[in-house]
Amino acid sequence: MLFEIFKSRKSTKIPFINCSPTWCIAWGAVDASYEGIAWRDEKVAVILPPKASGFLTEKLAISSGEQFVVVGDVWLTNQAQLLQKLGIEPNSFALNPLQLVAHLWEQWGFECLNQLVGIFALVVWDREKQVLWLVRDRVGARTLYYTTKLRQVASF
After folding, report:
1. What are the residue boundaries of the structural domains of the chain, listed by start?
2. What is the rounded CA–CA span in Å between residue 69 and residue 60?
């Protein structure tokens, strides 16, 4: 039988890999004393681990109308084309890709995802509609974990 060859092999232990997220989102009632809260409103809190707290502007963006809060890791290969669609001169845009996604989301909503080319894992909180979007690139190059336990919704 084909699988007989595996019976005599010793199983090897796979070492435990400690993966610490660079950001977390808590959805629901979040205690104000919770450590590492970088931004919050009545339903959502953005939590950055101490080592990532210096990177707040890289992990968090708020749309210009302040309706959408975008958190995540984004690397776009078509950033110049997206800026042109928004009518922004690519050389004049000094913001990071996460802020670009916030602008795009404000303009086109979740339909903007069809325009994104690159690697990304992000969460978008619509403050008016009270909707939380968890988004990942098509290939899944950036991981996005979620749980319904311990009030932690998403992390990377």
Report:
1. 20-155
2. 7
Provide the token pair at 149. Answer: 């336990």
Of 126, 128, 103, give the one whose Cα is nearest residue 116.
Answer: 103
Burial letters 15-34, b for 16+ CB under 10 A, else e:
eeeeeebbbbbbbeebeeee
8 A C-beta contact, residue 12 and residue 61: no
Residues in the chain: 156
CA 14 to chain centre: 28
**CATH assignment of 20-155, among 3.30.365.10, 3.60.20.10, 3.40.630.30, 3.40.50.12780:** 3.60.20.10
Query: Does 15 have pLDDT greater than 70?
Result: no
pTM for the structure as a whole? 0.78
- Encoded amino acid at 140, one letter: G
